Amino acid sequence: MSAKIISSKRDNPQIIINNFKFHKAYEGVNKVRWRCINKSCKAKVFTKTNVYTEILNTENEHNHEAVNENTINWQIVNTSCKRKALEDVSTRPKKIILQELIHNECVKEITINDINRIRKNMYENRRKTLPANPKSIAEVHQALNVMNIETKQKENFLLLNDENENIIIFSCYTNLKCLSLVDTLYMDGTFDYCIRFFMQMFTIHGFQNGHYIPLVFCLLPNKLTYSYAFAL
């Protein structure tokens, strides 16, 4: 008898055993008591406190049919996608969902509505940990002042947050070191794809190993401040 861990609609832990779902009723020092989600059912399961998938014993039989297998599989995919949405916030939900469906062959029937629900749940899960979208450029600067923006190598990635000039520059020590060593630079300013509250996203690329690599990213309030950003 094996158990799988999933999350309820309210992100509470549940376990699945033979397509029957249980919610946590009590957690002690050494074991956890789980009860069937059907209120009229008295079936119980006991697992270890630190290892929910390790079943110690069970009590009573179910007085109802098991949950549809496709519903169970959908919930397993939903739980996995919500977790991965927090582990990799830069990856689009659609890509995470497709990867999960490819690796989870047990999901045989899934509709567009199911995918939309999973995507919505992923965005809601991210909003619980990420700050709210700023409503003004002042809020953008305030948010950056309290955020710890780092690369995967734990380098500080916020180079400048100028609240007076409304200029923000992202880069790190490794990028700047690379920038000082390359022979060829390429600068580009885009207006169509710049984020809200700024007019231009100005980037500096270095030519290395046959490719132009983006090394510095600047958010500028107008078309005339790129020289100021580059001078920094």
UniProtKB/TrEMBL annotation:
Gene Ontology MF term list: zinc ion binding
Alphabetical keyword list: Metal-binding, Zinc, Zinc-finger
InterPro entries per UniProt: Znf_FLYWCH
FLYWCH-type domain sequence ranges: 6-64
Keyword Metal-binding attributed: yes
Name of this protein: FLYWCH-type domain-containing protein
